[in-house]
Every structure is written in structure tokens, then in C-alpha cells.
Amino acid sequence: MIDLISDTVTRPSQAMRAAMAAAPVGDDQYGEDPSVRALEEKSAALLGKERGLFFPSGTMTNQAALKVLTRPGDDVLIANEAHLVWHEGGAAAVNSGVQFTTIGERGVFDERDVKAACKKRGHAFIPGTTLVVIENTHNRFGGRIFPHNKAQSVLSAAKELKLATYLDGARLFNVFAATGLALSTLAEGFDLVGISLSKGLGCPVGSVLCGSKAAIEDAKLARRRFGGAMRQSGILAAAGIYALDHNMERLQLDHRHAALIGDALDGAPGIVFDRSTVETNIVTFDLNERAVDAQTLANAVAKKGVRIAVFGPRRVRMAAHLDVTEEQCRFAGQVMREALDSLNTH
Ligand SMILES: *Cc1c(COP(=O)(O)O)cnc(C)c1O
Q1: Using an 8 Å Cβ cutoff, are 132 and 119 in contact?
Q2: Residues 308, 296: Cα–Cα separation, whole Å
Q3: Are 265 and 337 in contact (CB under 8 A)?
Q4: How far apart are the C-alpha atoms of 68 and 248, rounded to whole Å?
Q5: Residue 247: which of 210, 309, 307, 204 has the closest Cα?
Q6: CA distances from 101 to 111, 117, 121, 323 (A)
Q7: Contact 263, 333 (CB under 8 A)
Q8: Pocket of ligand 1, candidates 5, 85, 168: which has the most ligand atoms within 8 Å of its Cβ, to mutate?
Q9: DSSP-derived secondary structure for 93-134
Q10: Going by CA atoms, what residue is nearest to atom 15 of ligand 1?
Q11: What span, in angstroms and rounded, lies between the C-alpha atoms of 129 and 164?
Q12: Is residue 345 predicted with pLDDT exceeding 70?
């Protein structure tokens, strides 16, 4: 099976497993795991932040950031269909008691959107906005890159309005691979930045939250409260160090592979698909009202050995990653095209 359901399906390579097996470890709750410390320092340095903090998942990283940067009852500005809004089981309401106001178009917004949506604090009944979140790349909108100039305009509006800023950079490495902008440039100006090691970088587990010394101290307490403080987690951190050293540069390959799938789908019948939206490793499209639904399409291509994600009744997603080759992606594109051609002409 050519598994394109997500870039999280990768399995650790032999070399990554060897690095994990060889990792020096200690009890991280006593600050004594050298591998965790090394990963945290390496991540912080890459992002140009003072400190890093290792987390078991990107969801917990996001939740800790919300916990640190908001108070219950606050309003948070964020793109529609963000991971925090759609993929975390309502955790923002459960853990931090915040509400979301979604802004922008297809994952992207700018200064004007922030200013228009920001609600002043101290009002008798309107919930004050205290945080703005950017997701880069945006998962549900197909690995879309948040344009750097727009991110800068959002940051300057946030500064003016005294809003905290969080970058959900689960796939920030893909932005680096696609644009060549340094991770530190992409992270600059954000109070906290979360990065994921278990997506395109191919680790079995792990995310890192980076920010100032003070913000990371607060996040450490939030992590403990969420039950995510670990012990000899250096075994996992070693995978992260290996991935940062070996799997970052190759992400461009995933982008080329996703582009091949995009090329095959371009102009296919029954779909609403803009080829130019394939900017990184993800391909998404909607099936129009005359076409079959997403599950029917997924079932049809599964019979040919291609697994895709059903992301909504009429939306599918495919993600290229380090466990699929160029050949497999070409084949997957062909299978998808043939399925659309035959399902939508009968
Ligand atoms: C995958 C993802 C996360 C983190 O998810 P986990 O599965 O908890 O590691 C966070 N944000 C975005 C945008 C993601 O795609």
C-alpha cells in the first residue's frame, strides 16, 4: 500500500533507531537527560529563541502555548480550519477556557483582518482578544505557506494591539524547504513557536516549543499539569536530533513528489482543484456536487493500492513523506486520475 494518508505514518529508519538506542539518558524531570537538553538547545538555536521544551505531541505543545499566553474567557484570533480549532477535540475550551474567532481566507490573513476582528479588552460584555495564532504551513488547506510579508504585518498589528503571538509550526520545516527562509526568520517576533518532529522529519514522537526563558518556564509547568513531563525521554529526543541533522534538507523531495500528484490531478473531472495550491508536501482538493463523495473515491483508489485521507464528506488529502518514493507518487497520481476519470464519466 502506498500510504499517503499523512506524513505522520513514517517509521523510524534503522539509522534513527540506532541513534535512539545509543542515546545518553537521565531523568529529565531533574533536568538530567543530556539528549533532551541537546534537542531543546538545538531547536531553540535553529529558531532563534532562548529556550526549547520537548513535548510528547504537537497537540500538547499547542495546548501549553494557549495555556501560557491566555486566561479563561479570552478570545483568540486564528485561521479557519486550524489544527487547534478542528483537530484537538475541543481542548482549547477544556484546558484554557478560550474561544476562537476565525479569520482570513484559506489559512491566511493579514494586519487588516487582525485589526477588524480584535476585540478590545476591558469591555463590559465583549470577550477581549489576547492572542493571535498563525499555522504555517496550514494543514487542512493543503500545506499552504503563510506568506512571510503577511506574517510580518500580523506581527506588527499584534504588537500595536498588545496581543500575544503563537506560531503553530508543526510543518515549519516545510516552509523552510520551500522558501529557503531561515527557521529563525520564520519564527522571529512570535512569543512561542511549536515545531513537530513526527511529521515530515520522520520521528516516532515529539514536538518542541520554543520561546523566551520566562515563557518556557511557564510552559514547563503547563506540560507537567497536562501530564506530559517525561523521564528518560532522551531516547525519543535522540530521534529528533537525528532528524534535524538528516531529514530537514530532503523535505524538498517530498514537495516535488506532491507536485507530481498535483500535475496528475490538474484538470481532472469532478474536482475543485487549483494546482497552484500545492506549495509543499500536501495535496488537497474538493469533489464537486456532481462527483462521487470522498469515501467512494478513497475506496476506489485503495483497491489499486493507494491510501488517501478522507478529510470531509467531499474533501480528500494526500501527503508525501519520507517513506514514499518518486515512483510511488507518480503511480498514486495516475491511479487518482484514472479513478476520477472513470468515476465521474459514468
Ligand atoms: C499534526 C499537527 C499538529 C500536532 O499534532 P500531533 O498529532 O499532536 O503531534 C499541530 N499542528 C498542526 C498544524 C498539525 O498538522
Answers
A1: no
A2: 11
A3: yes
A4: 29
A5: 204
A6: 15, 8, 15, 37
A7: yes
A8: 168
A9: IIII--EEEEESBTTB--HHHHHHHPPPTT-SSSPPEEEEEE
A10: 139
A11: 9
A12: no
Cα–Cα distance, 282 to 32 (Å, whole number): 38
Q: What spacing in Å lies between the alpha carbon of 84 and ligand 1's midpoint?
A: 8
Please write the tens of the pLDDT for every residue from 196-230.
Answer: 999 999 999 999 999 999 999 999 999 999 999 99
Segment 234-242 mean pLDDT: 98
According to the model, what pLDDT value does residue 344 have? Answer: 76
Closest CA to ligand 1's atom 14: 170
State CA 167 to chain mean position distance: 10
Q: Which three cell numbers stand for residue 229?
A: 513531563
Crossing angle for the helix pair 326-343 and 251-265, to the nearest 10 degrees: 20
Distances (CA, A) of 239 to 31, 151, 252: 19, 30, 20
Instruction: Judge contact between 241 and 69, C-beta under 8 A.
Output: no
**Contact by Cβ (8 Å): 11, 213:** no
Q: Is the CB of 61 under 6 A from ligand 1?
A: no
Quick: pLDDT tens for 243-300.
Answer: 999 999 999 999 999 999 999 999 999 999 999 999 999 999 999 998 999 999 999 9
Q: How much distance in Å is there from the Cα of 141 to the middle of ligand 1?
A: 14
What is the grid cell recorded at 319? 501527503
pTM: 0.97
Cα 110 versus chain centre, distance: 19
